[in-house]
Records
---
Amino acid sequence: MNDLLRCSVVRDLIPELAAGVASGEERAEALAHLSRCPACRRELDETATVVDDLLLLGPSKEPPPGFETSVLGRLRLPRARARRRGRVLQFAAVLVVATVLGSGTTMWATARERRLAAAYEGTLAVANGKYFTARELTQGSGPEVGHLFAYEGSPSWIFVTIADGSTLEGSYEIQLVTTDGDSRTLGDCVLTSGDRSCGGEIDVPLRDVLLIRLTKPGESSLIAHF
Amino acid sequence: MASGDDEAAAAFVRRFQSKVYGLALGIVRSPTLAEDVAQEAFVKAWRYAGAYDSRKGRVARWMMTITRNLAIDAVRSSRQQPTDADELMRLILARDRGDDAEVGFEDTDRLRRALRDLPSEQTQAVLLSVFYGLTAKEIGTLEGIPVGTVKSRVRRGLMRLRDRLEVHDE
């Protein structure tokens, strides 16, 4: 991580940071600077507000008949009753918030996020890492079945964890697909009832990873998108 | 869900479904894929409702950001290219006043006017970045122009939009 990144360099990145399209490496480098530079944070905050507002200009179109029923059906399905009740209340709270809040976005300026940025920076600095991320692992169009964690450093690696309660078992081939379409096999991941995780080294920067999938004949692949 | 919970969730879905589906369709272009994306956006919003932070802005912005990110992921997975971004641009720039007030953003007319006033190449670069999640490098490849030129267009465009909004807020 480059601690000497100047404001001018980071500000050049701010439009892509605000739009969420900067690479992992750029994000990590900018985050280190932003954690120490209130002026750049303010610049990012203001630009991110414009980006957020622009998204509201997107076209409106009524979805096909049955959409609402399908969505509500999916909201009901995967949750245990107690957890569901809590989330329903949270969701209702979001509705209330929607009606009373004024405008404005403060993506970067809160104390909590400054602490988070500093913690992230410190974590990466331990082993001179560049980037760390976590992605949902899904199977087909179904719900999340686990997570994939990815670290860019020396070495770079991924680690897969399968959620409790999942019945996935057996030997899966781990394939990495890059943004330019290359596919490579990283090795095998053997899941048993007692071993619900696996991992290994990767040899490409995370910004070049399009997706990682675990494949097994006769089953839909488990996929983590980047 | 209990009946009251059903009503809260249904109210939320009804309030945002046309914006969420419209944005998803504008990005992915396939009605089937757009419906999948829109459904997933609501499921994700539901799952992370507890992590919603009111300081991050209003719910409409939050829903649109979730939708945009899922739509971009879907486009990237299917390896489509946004070759008809012109159509999305036309829809965004041409809409009539008052269409968005119901989802919590009352300044759409002003922002849309500001967007129309930008040089078209800046508008194009900003919208490709914001709506399609294209990097400067990707926009440069698509448009056949240098990365530095794209970065300059996006930055100038966003700064001018920001200035227009700030002037009004003062």
Note: Chain B has two domains: 1-80, 83-170.
---
Amino acid sequence: MQVIKPTGEYVEEIEPDISKDELRKLYKLMVLLRNLDIRGLQLQRQGRIGFFIGSLGQEACQIGSAYALKPEDWIFPAYREIGVALLRGITLKQVMNQYFANAEDLEKGRQLTNLYGARSVNFVTGSAPIATQLPHAVGAALAAKIRGDPIVTLVYFGEGATSENDFHAGMNFAGVFKTPTIFFCQNNHWAISVPVEKQTGAETIAIKAKAYGFEGVRVDGNDILAVYRTTKQAVEKARNGGGPTLIEAVTYRMGPHSSSDDPKRYIAEQELEEWQKRDPITRFRRYLEKKRIWSESDEKKTQEGTNQEIDEAIAYAEKVPRPALETLFTDVYAEMPWHLEEQLRELQQEKGREE
Amino acid sequence: MRRNDKIVLLGEDVGVNGGVFRATEGLYKEFGSNRVIDTPLAESGIVGISIGMALYGLKPVPEIQFLDFIYPAFDQIQSELAKFRYRSGGQYTVPVVIRTPYGGGIRGSHYHSQSTEAFFVHTPGLKVVIPATPYDTKGLLTSALRDPDPVMFLEPKKIYRTVRGEVPDEDYTIPIGKANIAREGEDVTVFAYGAMFHVAMEAAELAASKGINVEIVDIRTLMPFDIETVMSSVKKTGRVVIVHEACKTCGFGAEIAAQIAERALLQLEAPIIRVAGFDVPFPYVLEDEYLPNANRVLSAIEKVHNF
């Protein structure tokens, strides 16, 4: 499934109905996300933040899919979906508070960069274990179904996750209970250094859905409009009681897995160059230019504007102090039990002695 | 479930069949398939789905048919259930109550007998509750259902059929985190929980006939455990025996012993003795030799008494 060709040519019959302003907004968000990724990795390399994991090359997957949802729908991210949180209204300042793991971070500085969650926008806090979020998305959808709420849940994961137990558990429960769940697989071809051919002997990821009793579809993950259109169809089907869908968005990880690895060790330069020609942002820009709703000056303004916004957010977040000492012990339980109170007191005394 | 329509039961065989130990008997008929859900045979799915339901605001009570089969769900319990509140900065809570039969005494061999409660006590974010009597089971389960945190509710399967007791119809709770001094005595304290509580009580009777007055403390909640009751009993008797059927090494007894040693070494009149399962996989035909019995507990009581 493809709407925009790499050249920017498009198939008019399946072009989704999105206003010019909205198209421009989506493009700007993709650019923001790209620049955020570049700066994020730099911050890590400069030793200003501890870790970084980005989504270089996967911008169309994230923005296109999340745009097909309503605000009341629930999203279960893996750990590359910060663009989705931005689309849902989380500010750059909030994102940067999380990067710097400071006292204003919603997660109180407890998680690695981009393992983010914001209850206010139904973006459920992610974790590092792979595929564990799939059953959660199914459980929340089942709960909504039991309560009669017309919402859907969408869960993100990579092709590596399809090898995990919880991929099977989540897909199987969704098939049995016909939950309104969208399984959104970003097949970016690489699970750290292991290529997709070593994850599965199946011809595609999408065909796996058949064994669970529901539909699996494949979409060009570097084409934001194709991703949007495909997700929208799956969302409508789920909302109307048609059950789950597995979407395989075929994309490419154009950066490292995280700040802790060097893809030059395992990815051929030529392969990366091939995919760079299919860059989702360039492609969407060509489309907008063909439709005459984007110009060179728009581009310049957006590049400069997003970088400035990022700089401002960094300048702010870097100055916010670390989370308070007691946050080491809070939120383990609703109320702090005696042994944690005791350990907190011991630590406070120890700190007092140091000072 | 009549009082709180958010409570949902789910697990293998919990619906039409009423659970393999009949713990959910009649509930499917009364509450229907939306609230008493027979699931596929997949423990990580059962716990993972429960977490999703709890995130959405329901109160799921999954049953894992035997504690021995919980390991496919270990990732969900360790990495997700226990950490949601903390890692989200308190934004999300997942107050799931996992019920699971545990322990030996039913001729079940390795895979229907183990006591691995220590794994869960060793996981910050979980509460761990083990009732020993029918009365306590209702009171503690009611507390667990009203608790804002995830609770591992381990039911000693030997006593499903061997222990009888009055259970009032009316609503009552037994607070999580409170031990029970089930028998008062001055000479020796025995700490026990689950099925071993009854073994300890039997040993106390035997000891009484020899003139040793034993205090029995049913721990009831392992996390967070009742340090006040434990320490006040230690200070009273100065002699301690700890009984559990889990393997001795790194079992919960080690934690009680360490806490006592840190706080009251000079009040002890004798070394602390643990009577526990051996550090072997749970046996089949030699089960009676593996499990602590009243005579082994009595020997330990005599040893600390005569030290």
Note: The mean pLDDT of chain B is 96.
